[in-house]
Amino acid sequence: MGVPFDYAPDRPEHIDAILNGLDRYNPETTAVFQDYVTQQCEDRTYDCYANLALLKLYQFNPHLTRDETTTNVLVKALTVFPSPDFSLCLHLLPPHMLSPTSSSLSSPAAGDVPLSEAVQKLTTLNTLLSCADYKGFWTTLDSDDLYADLIADVSGFEELMRVRIAVSVSQTCREVERGVLEGWLALGGKEFERFVGEVCGWGIDETEGVKGVVRVPVNKENEAKGTVVRENVQFNQFARMIKRAYEQPA
Predict the structure, then answer these.
(1) Burial, 249: exposed, middle or buried (Cβ in 10 Å; 0-12, 13-18, 19+)?
(2) Measured between alpha carbons, how far is residue 236 from residues 67, 220, 232 in Å?
(3) What secondary structure letter does DSSP report for 150?
(4) Whether 153 contacts 79, CB under 8 Å
(5) Cβ(177)–Cβ(211) below 8 Å
(6) Are 101 and 53 in contact (CB under 8 A)?
(7) What is the distance between the alpha carbons of residues 41 and 68, in angstroms, rounded to a whole number?
(8) How many whole angstroms separate alpha carbon 244 and alpha carbon 157?
């Protein structure tokens, strides 16, 4: 049996009480949810159901919207790819936030980044992850200082992303060239070896060549299994069809 969508093991009791009552639609709880998002960013927990409830409150009460909290929710959603959480969050944002900066209706103060631009940047990262272009993800992340500002509040963002990428790799591969995996994880040298060995529990086989090959242990996702399909159809099941084939038309 799968885990319920609204389940979060680290959710505080007062947040759970709000989500299971009418107060989840009370504008006064917006500040509580905003503080909870900050807590998630600091202690590396995640609660999609609560974050979606906050975005829903922003829909009903646009004047309460905080750009920083909105971007933090989207960044946290990136850390659990390939789940659809990021797309769910996007669908709760107003249309002008999803538009390019030039057509945005927002008027940020001097020095502030328009929320629409931030959303576009994060959507680009999500698209790269969805396409499994992990090297492109890291290249894009390092290409603009705005990305550093967007992920600054999320503690351990890069490490969380490496773990998620490693999980995806373990589900699809049995072995990967070291140079390729270094690009996917944006790590090299001793840091790469520590992450692969200690965090992932994988081995590096240096006998395959100069760069080596990373061996991923067999699991139920990456194990190749043959599928044999057997049809259990009795001949008498075709009797009616054969009989009709020989019947004379009326």
Answers:
(1) exposed
(2) 68, 40, 12
(3) H
(4) no
(5) yes
(6) no
(7) 12
(8) 67
Q: Three-state DSSP class for 210?
A: coil
Listed residue (80, 4, 70, 8) closest to 37, CA to CA: 70
Give the DSSP H/E element, type plus range, for residue 176: strand 175-177
**How buried is residue 212: exposed, middle or buried, by Cβ count under 10 Å (0-12/13-18/19+)?**
middle
pLDDT in tens, 150-209: 999 999 999 999 999 999 999 988 889 988 999 999 998 899 999 999 999 888 887 755
Phi-psi region of 5 (alpha: psi -120 to 50; beta: other; left: phi over 0): alpha
Quickly count: other Cβ atoms within 10 Å of residue 239's Cβ.
Answer: 10
What radius of gyration, in Å, describes the C-alpha atoms of the chain?
A: 25
Q: What is the DSSP letter of 202?
A: -
Q: How far is CA 140 from CA 149, 150, 193, 222, in A?
A: 14, 13, 24, 29
pTM: 0.82
* C-alpha 179 chain-centroid distance: 25
**Model confidence over 5-37: pLDDT tens digits?**
778 888 999 999 999 998 899 999 999 999 999
Q: Which amino acid is at 52?
A: L
